[in-house]
Amino acid sequence: MGNRYAAYVGSYTYIGNSKGVTILDVDPEKGTMSRRKEIRVNNASYVSSSRDGTRLYSIADDGIVSFRILPDGDLERMGKATIRGMRGCHISTDQANHFMFVSGYHDGKVTVLRMEEDGSVGEITDSFYDKGIGSIAERNFRPHISCSRLTPDEKFLCITNLGIDQIKVFHFNKDTGKIKMADVIRCELESAPRFLRFSSDGKFMYVISELKNYLSVYSYDGSDGLPKFELLQTISTVGKKSSNVNAAAALRFSPDESLVLCSNAGDNSIGIYDRNAESGLLTQRVVLPVSGEYPKDIGMFPGEKFIYSVNHETSTMTFFTWVPDKNYFYMHTPPLKIDQPNCCALVKLPD
């Protein structure tokens, strides 16, 4: 019997008919997903699974909702925790699932919470409201924290602030859950760094910038107790023929991290890049349309033969076959209707 997977899609509920979190059955051999049921969560703007795939966490208007992922992929509600602020937009956890980090776009706040032994979310251990003024009055005139992640050695917490074009780096105390400012990476003016991810070997950080529409590659070294980042490369998220109105959106690795995928709103496309594991550098292979509007999240199925796109504005998910020898992908099944989808967490179920 092969591996079994489920997917969980978070949606807004203030418009449309979504209840919040949609559970999908995944066929990794065909590159398709099918709707199973919905779970009620108000305005699930982001969902994330624990590293071991046994828990699912969802943003809600009033905090964080925790679920136990059952062996068949169904969800069992565990509880709710407050972040004492406006609704978050991103969730990440440490490797051991001892702490959670919640990013706040609307109030420019990052919140650190301790996890309970059963995997539910506990009390706040620390928080930080960013300050500063951006350069574009209509878009990023004030702090908007859109992503918070630990470095792979878990010494530092990095937060992207697309409102003031900075990535702030904090010392992270794994015992107390406290954070303390360590450094600031000042990005290009009006670039709007949106999301970041680290390679699993801990050597490289990848950042997607919403307004300049490029990916940035940084080297990382925290061996002497201080965070050292060096910008190695910036590379466009779009092709030579792209929309004049564009906003880089999602950033993902392929399962084996040999590829980096990004998405573009406006251009409504996915870019695929080769990643050199030694140098960390990227080479663009192809940028193609997703047959939907505002691909807010994207990803690859296990096996790296298929791609999915979460299209917020058209309320669809679209699915593609990746043909690496010819550098293109094509849609192989009709779109799946999901109202106002924001993101997708694909989880391997227990054997």
UniProtKB/TrEMBL annotation:
GO terms for cellular component: cytosol. GO terms for molecular function: 6-phosphogluconolactonase activity. Pfam families: Lactonase (PF10282). It comes from the Bacteria. InterPro entries: Cycloisomerase_2 (IPR050282), Haem_d1_sf (IPR011048), Lactonase_7-beta_prop (IPR019405), WD40/YVTN_repeat-like_dom_sf (IPR015943). Belongs to the cycloisomerase 2 family. This is Lactonase family protein. The lineage of its organism: Bacteria, Bacillati, Bacillota, Clostridia, Lachnospirales.
